[in-house]
Amino acid sequence: MNAGYAQIESLARDSYGRLLAYLAARSGDVAGAEDALSEAFLAALQRWPAEGVPEKPEAWLLTAARRRMIDVARHAAVRSRAAETLSQIAEMAQSETESGEFFPDERLKLLFVCAHPAIDAAARTPLMLQTVLGLDAARIASAFLTSPSAMSQRLVRAKTKIRDAGIPFSIPAKEELAARLQSVLEAIYAAYTCGWDAGEDTTREGLVNEALWLGRVVVGLLPQEPEALGLLALMLHSQARHDARRDAEGRYVPLPEQDVSQWSEEKIREAESLLTLASTEQMPGRFQLEAAIQSVHAQRRWSGVIDWRAIAFLYEGVLHFSPTVGAQIGRAVAVAQTQEAAQGVLLLDEIPLETVRNHQPYWAARAHLLVEAGRIEEGRVAYQRAIGLSDHTVSRKFLQQKIQDL
Prior knowledge:
Among the domains are: 3-104; 332-406, Serine Threonine Protein Phosphatase 5, Tetratricopeptide repeat (Alpha Horseshoe). The protein is 72% helix and 0% strand. It has 22 helices and no strands.
C-alpha cells in the first residue's frame, strides 16, 4: 500500500474524533465540521500519494478543513458573521498547530454537547459514536437494532439541533453534569463493546483504547462519581481477559472456559479498586452492577468456580436500572446455570421477537440453552440463525463446531 494511503487510513482511524471535535467546538456546527473534514481527507487522498505525506499531517488536515468551512460560510450571505468567526478560528488553529504543541483535545466537550437535554434522548449515544469516534450510521444502526436510514435521519436532526440552538461546547457546570453523564457513559461503553467485538475488522481495534482513555478522563473529571468509576472498572475487567479469548489456533473461547492464568491480574486489581471506591458512595447503578458481574467472573482466577447465583441476582439489579436486551440475555443464561436450562429459555421467550430478530447474541444464547434443555433440533435451527447473523469468521467457526458436536 502507498505510504500516503496508509497514513490517511491511520489518521482517519486515530485522529478523526479529535480533529472533528476541535473544529465543531469552535464553529458550533457539527455537520459542517464533518463535511469540511471529509473534504480535507479527500484532498489528502488526491495529493499525498503523489506529493508525499506532510511533516505535520494532522495540522495539514485541520488547515484544509477550516479553509473549506470558511469558503462555505462566505458563499452563504446569511452567514457573513460565521465567516468572520471561522477566519479567527483559522488563525488560532494555524498558531496552535505550528507551535511545538498539538491542538487541544475537545472530545469530552463534544460528548457533553451530544448529551444536551435539547437533543432527543434516543439520538445522544449514536451521535457521540459517530462524531467523537467516527462510526458510520450503518454500524451504529446495527448496534441499536434499527435501520441505517432511520439512524441517519436521527443523527442529521440532532446535528441540526446543536447548530440552530447554539448549544455551547463546554463541560457543563456541576449541577448540570448528572443529567448528561449517563448518556456520555453509555456512549463510551458502546464504543468499547464495538471495539471489543471487532472480530476481523482491525479498523475498530482502536475504539477500545479510545473508550478506556475517555473513561479515565471522565473519572479524572468526576473522581467521586460512582457510575464513572463503575464503567472504568467494567471495561478493565473485560480487558483483563483479552489474551484468553482465543486459543493457540485462534479459535474463540467462551468466558467460562477461558484459561484464567492468561487473565491480567494487574487490570483485575485496578478494576476491583475502582469498584470498591464506587461502593463507598452507596449509589448503585447500571455500570457498577455490570462491573460487579465481571468481578464475580474474575474471582474464578482464585476460587476456581463461578457463583452463578450471585450473577443472576446482579442481573436483576441491572435490569432495574437499564432493561436492555443484553441484560435480559445475561440473566437468562445465569438463571439457566442456577436452575434449569428450560427456565432460561422461558426468560428468553419473554423478549419480543421483533426486538431480537437480527440480534446474533440472542440466537447464540438461545441455541445453547435449547440444546441444554434437550430441544436439539430447535437448538440446531437457532445455531444456524446465529451463524447467519455473525459478522466474524471466528464466531461462525465456533458456532459451526457447536452444530457438529450435536
